[in-house]
TrEMBL record:
Keywords: Coiled coil, Lipid transport, Lipid-binding, Membrane, Phosphoprotein, Transport
InterPro entries linked: OSBP_sf, Oxysterol-bd, Oxysterol-bd_CS, PH-like_dom_sf, PH_domain
Compositional bias segments (type: Basic and acidic residues): 677-698
UniProt region (Disordered), positions on chain: 116-148, 677-708
GO terms, molecular function: sterol binding
Pfam families in the cross-refs: Oxysterol_BP, PH
Gene: LOC115419357
Chain segments annotated as coiled-coil in the UniProt record: 224-258
SMART domains registered for this protein in UniProt: PH (SM00233)
Membrane topology: Peripheral membrane protein
Stated name of the protein: Oxysterol-binding protein
Chief location of this protein within or outside the cell: membrane
SUPFAM superfamilies: Oxysterol-binding protein-like (SSF144000), PH domain-like (SSF50729)
Length: 753
C-alpha cells in the first residue's frame, strides 16, 4: 500500500533555466595560452564565440551540460568535460565571477538532466526561457522554493500513509479484540495482547513522525522569507564587491598603460627586464584585468665596455681572490679534501606512506578562530611526523652556500651567498601543509652530519608559553649559525598566519663578519575549503654588523592580478653608504640568481611619487637551485631527502631527542589512533610538570630565609645572553652536549617522554 501511495505522488516541478552570457578565458594551446572568448549558456548548452558579433553566424563550439562534468581547479579556473570528446579549460576574471558561472552551470545542468529524464526527445526542442535578472540570487531562491515544495509533497505522502496505517491498525485491533473474546488458551490470549500493544505503539510512533514532519514544514515556511532576504542581501553585496574590484582593476590598468607610454629610455636601455617590461605578447593575448605592484627597481644589461673592463681588471690584478668575468662568483673551487676514507652511514630514503584518513577540519577549527595555533589541541591527522625542532634543522639543507660564503674574500660577495641561504630555507615549505609537532619543554634534537657534511647542530625547546626554540650549528668550514625562534600564529577562518619572531645570526671565523636577519610571514590558505597552499610574504634585511653591508630581500605575496612569476623574491646588496653592488632575483621554491651592478640611475617616472632605480648589470648567474624531491614524495608528506632522515632512529642520542618521542614515532608508522592517545598523555604529563614547577615557585617566594625567587625554567644546553654586536638578547649554546654524548652520560636530562 505504501509503495502504491508513493508512486502516485508527483515530483516537484522543474525550475526553468536562465540564459547566461559573459567573457571567459579559454585555454587554446601552449603557444597562445588562454584566449578571451564570449560564452553563452542557454537550454542546457554552453557555446562560445570569438566575439559577440559572431553569435549570429559562427559558433566555435558547444557542449551539452546534461552529460558534462564540472570541476573547480582553484580560485578562478574550472574545467568542463563530457567524458573525453570535449574538454574546456576556462578561467574567470575573478573568484566572484567564477562562482557566478559555476552556479549558473550547475543549475543549467540540473535542469537539463531533469528534462532529459522526462522526455526521450532532445533537450534542444524545449523553448528557450527569456533571461531574468539576478541569476545568482534568483536561482538560489527558486531552489529554496523547490525544496519547500518537495518537503510538502513528502509530508502529504506521509499523511496518506498514516491515514492508511490508522485505518488498518484499527481494523487489526478490532479483529484481535474479537479473537481475545473467544477465550482460547491462556498462552494464546497473552500473545494476542502483546500484538495489540505493539500495534498501538506503532500507531503512536507513526503519529509522532507525521507531527514532527508537519512542524518542520511549518517552520521552514515561516522562515522562507527570511532566507530569501538573506540570500538577496548576499547577492547584492557580491555584486557591489565585484563592481568595486572591476573598477579598481580598470583604474590600475589605465595607470600602468599611462606609465608605459610616458617612459622613454635611452637606446642602451632597450633590453629592459623584470617588472615593467614590454610584454612579448600582443595586446589581444594579454589578460585585460592583469594588475601588479610596481617594482622598486629595474635591471638592464650593462654596456659591453664593462665586460671588457672586468676582464682586464682580472688579468692585471692577480692579487685579487675573485675575478668577476661575467660575474663568475659561483665558481669557487673546493679546498683539497683529505684522502683518508671514513665509513659514512647510509641514511634511509623512504618512510611509510601517509595513510588516507579523513577528518573534518572545520569541526575542530570553527571554535578556534582568532586563537593562537600553539594553544589549539589538534589531532595528529593534521601533523607531519616531525617536530618543530626538526623543521628548524631543515634550514641547513643547503649548507653548501655557507661553505662557499666562508671562502669569500669580499664581504659583498659573501652577503650574496648568505642572502641565498636565507631564501633557500623556505624551499622545503612549498608543499608541506602538515603541521609539525609542538616540542615539549626541554625536548632536544641533534643533527650530526660532521662526517658527511662537516657540520652538526643542536636544537632545544627553551620555553613553552610562548613556544620558543634555540638552535646552534657549527661547521668545520669556519661558520656558525644560531637562532632563537618564537612562533606567533593566528587562525583567521580562511587562512592561517604564522609570524616567526626572533632573529637568526651567522658568524664567520676568518673574516669576523657577523650577519643577522629575521624570517618572513608564512600563510596557509584554504584552511576550510579547497586545496591547502602556502605563501611566504614580507621583507628581510640581512645586515653585516661589522662592515655595514646590507641586503634587502622582498618576498612578493601571491596575487591573481600579477603577471609576474609566483613566489618571486628580489633583493639588492648595498654597502654602508647605500651604493648597490649586486642584484638578486628568483623564486623561493626553485632557484636564485645574482648579477653584479655596474651602474645605477634614478628613473624619471614612478608611482605614488617614488622613483624607481635602474641598475645596469652583468649577465646573471645561478647561485642556488632547489634539489629535486625524492621519488614518491607526494606519499611521504612531500619530505625532502634530508627530511626523510631526520626522524630515523639513532643510537647514543639524548633521551630528550625528538626521535624518541612516542606519538611522533607512532604517527610515522601509520598508527594514528595510538598516536593521538599518546599525544594526549604527553601533553597532560607536561601540564602536570608545569603545575608542579609553579607550586615550587610559590614555595620559594614564601621562603625568605632561602632568598629564593619564583622559578623560571632554565634550559639545559643554552643560556640567555645579550649579544654586544647585534644588541639582541637570545639563547646561546653554552656547550657540554657533544661531550655528554661522547661519554654517554645523560643523567642531567629531564624525563619528558
Amino acid at each position: 500500500i505504501i509503495a502504491v501511495v508513493m508512486s502516485e505522488s508527483k515530483p516537484p516541478t522543474p525550475t526553468p533555466g536562465d540564459t547566461y552570457k559573459g567573457w571567459l578565458f579559454k585555454w587554446t594551446n601552449y603557444i597562445k595560452g588562454y584566449q578571451r572568448r564570449w560564452f553563452v549558456l542557454s537550454n542546457g548548452l554552453l557555446s562560445y564565440y570569438r566575439t559577440q558579433a559572431e553569435m549570429g553566424h559562427t559558433c566555435r563550439g558547444t557542449i551539452n551540460l546534461a552529460t558534462a562534468n564540472i570541476a573547480v581547479e582553484d580560485s578562478c579556473n574550472f574545467v568542463i568535460s563530457n567524458g573525453g570528446a570535449q574538454t574546456y579549460h576556462l578561467k574567470a576574471s575573478s573568484e566572484v565571477e567564477r562562482q557566478r558561472w559555476i552556479t549558473a552551470l550547475e543549475l543549467a545542468k540540473a535542469k537539463a538532466v531533469r528534462m532529459q529524464a522526462e522526455s526521450d526527445d532532445s533537450g534542444d526542442e524545449c523553448p528557450a526561457m527569456p533571461p531574468t535578472s539576478g541569476q545568482g540570487g534568483g536561482g538560489r531562491n527558486s531552489e529554496v522554493q523547490s525544496t519547500l515544495r518537495t518537503l510538502g509533497s513528502k509530508v502529504e505522502d506521509l499523511t496518506t500513509c498514516n491515514d492508511l496505517i490508522v485505518k488498518h491498525g484499527s481494523a487489526l485491533q478490532r479483529s484481535l479484540s474479537e479473537l481475545e473474546g473467544l477465550r482460547v488458551g491462556g498462552d494464546m490470549g497473552e500473545k494476542i495482547r502483546q500484538v495489540t500493544e505493539r500495534a498501538t505503539l506503532f500507531r503512536i510512533t507513526s503519529n509522532a513522525m507525521i507531527n514532527a514532519c508537519r512542524d518542520f514544514l511549518s517552520l521552514a515556511q515561516n522562515h522562507s522569507k527570511r532566507w530569501q532576504k538573506a540570500l538577496q542581501a548576499e547577492r547584492d553585496q557580491r555584486i557591489r564587491l565585484e563592481e568595486t574590484l572591476e573598477q579598481l582593476a580598470k583604474q590600475h590598468n589605465h595607470l600602468e598603460r599611462a606609465f608605459r607610454g610616458a617612459t622613454v629610455l635611452p637606446s642602451s636601455f632597450s633590453g629592459v627586464s623584470g617588472k615593467g617590461d614590454a610584454s612579448d605578447e600582443d595586446d589581444d593575448n594579454e589578460f585585460f584585468d592583469a594588475m601588479e605592484d610596481p617594482a622598486e627597481f629595474i635591471t638592464v644589461p650593462a654596456d659591453p665596455k664593462y665586460h671588457r673592463l672586468v676582464r682586464l681588471s682580472c688579468s692585471s690584478h692577480n692579487s685579487l681572490s675573485v675575478c668577476f668575468d661575467e660575474l663568475s662568483l659561483a665558481s669557487n673551487p673546493d679546498s683539497p679534501q683529505s684522502l683518508e676514507l671514513e665509513p659514512v652511514r647510509q641514511r634511509r630514503t623512504r618512510i611509510p606512506d601517509k595513510p588516507n584518513y579523513y577528518l573534518n577540519l572545520w569541526s575542530i577549527m570553527k571554535n578556534c578562530i582568532g586563537k593562537e595555533l600553539s594553544k589549539i589541541p589538534m589531532p595528529v591527522n593534521f601533523n607531519e611526523p616531525l617536530s618543530m625542532l626538526q623543521r628548524l634543522s631543515e634550514d641547513l639543507e643547503y649548507y653548501e652556500l655557507l661553505d662557499k660564503a666562508a671562502k669569500c674574500q669580499s664581504s659583498l660577495e659573501q652577503m650574496c651567498y648568505v642572502a641565498a641561504f636565507t631564501v633557500s630555507s623556505y624551499s622545503t615549505t612549498v608543499h608541506r601543509t602538515g603541521k609539525p609537532f609542538n616540542p615539549l619543554l626541554g625536548e632536544t634534537f641533534e643533527l650530526d652530519r660532521l662526517r658527511e657534511c662537516g657540520y652538526r647542530s643542536l636544537c632545544e625547546q627553551v620555553s613553552h608559553h610562548p613556544p620558543a626554540a634555540a638552535h646552534h650549528a657549527a661547521s668545520e668550514k669556519g661558520w656558525s649559525l644560531r637562532q632563537e625562534i618564537t612562533l606567533a600564529s593566528k587562525f583567521r577562518g580562511k587562512y592561517l598566519s604564522i609570524m616567526p619572531l626572533g632573529s637568526i645570526q651567522c658568524l664567520f671565523e676568518k673574516s669576523n663578519n657577523h650577519y643577522s636577519w629575521k624570517k618572513v610571514t608564512t600563510t596557509v590558505h584554504n584552511i576550510i575549503v579547497g586545496k591547502l597552499w602556502i605563501d611566504q610574504s614580507g621583507e628581510i634585511d640581512v645586515v653585516n654588523h661589522r662592515t655595514g653591508d646590507r641586503c634587502h630581500l622582498k618576498f612578493a605575496p601571491y596575487s591573481y592580478f600579477s603577471r609576474d612569476v609566483p613566489r618571486k623574491v628580489t633583493g639588492v646588496v648595498t654597502d654602508k653608504d647605500g651604493k648597490a653592488h649586486y642584484v638578486l632575483s628568483g623564486t623561493w621554491d626553485e632557484k636564485m640568481e645574482f648579477s653584479r651592478v655596474m651602474q645605477s640611475s634614478k628613473g624619471e617616472n614612478g608611482t605614488e611619487g617614488k622613483q624607481r632605480t635602474v641598475y645596469q648589470t652583468l649577465k646573471a648567474k645561478e647561485i642556488w637551485k632547489k634539489n629535486p624531491l625524492p621519488e614518491g614524495a607526494e606519499n611521504m608528506y612531500y619530505f625532502s631527502s634530508l627530511a626523510l632522515t631526520l626522524n630515523e632512529p639513532e643510537e647514543g642520542i639524548a633521551p630528550t631527542d625528538s626521535r624518541r618521542r612516542p606519538d611522533q614515532r607512532l604517527m610515522e608508522d601509520g598508527r594514528w589512533d595510538e598516536a593521538n592517545a599518546e599525544k594526549q598523555r604527553l601533553e597532560e604529563k607536561q601540564r602536570t610538570a608545569r603545575r608542579e614547577r609553579e607550586r615550587e615557585a610559590v614555595k620559594a617566594v614564601n621562603s625568605p630565609e632561602e632568598g629564593a625567587h619564583p622559578d623560571n625554567y632554565q634550559a639545559l644546553w643554552f643560556e640567555k645572553l645579550d649579544d654586544p654586536v647585534s644588541g639582541e638578547t637570545l639563547h646561546v649554546y653554552k656547550g657540554g652536549y657533544w661531550e655528554a654524548k661522547d661519554q654517554g652520560n645523560w643523567d642531567m636530562c629531564p624525563d619528558i617522554f
